[in-house]
Write a structure and sequence with these properties.
Layout: E1 2-8, E2 24-33, E3 38-47, E4 59-66, H1 76-96
The chain binds flavin mononucleotide.
Residues 1, 27, 29, 33-36, 44, 46, 70-71, 79, 83 line the site of flavin mononucleotide (FMN).
Length: 104
């Protein structure tokens, strides 16, 4: 799992945020998904506190740092809760450093 910044590189979004010049914080999974015995290497992005539909959009992600290697979780619920906790804590940390979500 990596922390990075996600920017759309196609047309600006209808909702006015995620424009190319406004990076959005993101957690990125790169690797196999051992929780699911999935040997295929995938790249998945989980944007902090974000629920618009971005399917089919083009984006660039600048990876800042690796937070941990991929690992096996006991259940998908445990994995989902883990990702949500890190995203929430990460967002609070960014806000404590002065970051505010554009367009919110
Ligand atoms: C930020 C992030 C971190 C992840 N870390 C792991 C991991 O450590 N181990 C793992 O098995 N899967 C990990 N995954 C991948 C999940 O297994 C994956 O999202 C899940 O299989 C759901 O896939 P689906 O959207 O194709 O259903 C991670 C996903 C995200 C977004």
């Amino acid at each position: 799992m990596y922390f990075g910044w996600f920017s759309l590189v196609d047309a600006p979004s209808a909702t006015g945020h995620l424009d190319p010049d406004i990076p959005w914080p993101v957690l990125v999974s790169i690797g196999t998904n051992p929780t699911f015995d999935n040997a295929e290497r995938t790249v998945e992005a989980h944007l902090f506190d974000f629920d618009d539909d971005l399917y089919g959009r083009r984006a660039v992600i600048n990876l800042e740092r690796q937070l941990r290697p991929q690992r096996r979780f006991d259940s998908i619920e445990a994995l989902t809760a883990h990702i949500e906790t890190i995203a929430r804590d990460g967002r609070q940390l960014l806000e404590s450093l002065g970051w505010t979500a554009p367009g919110r």
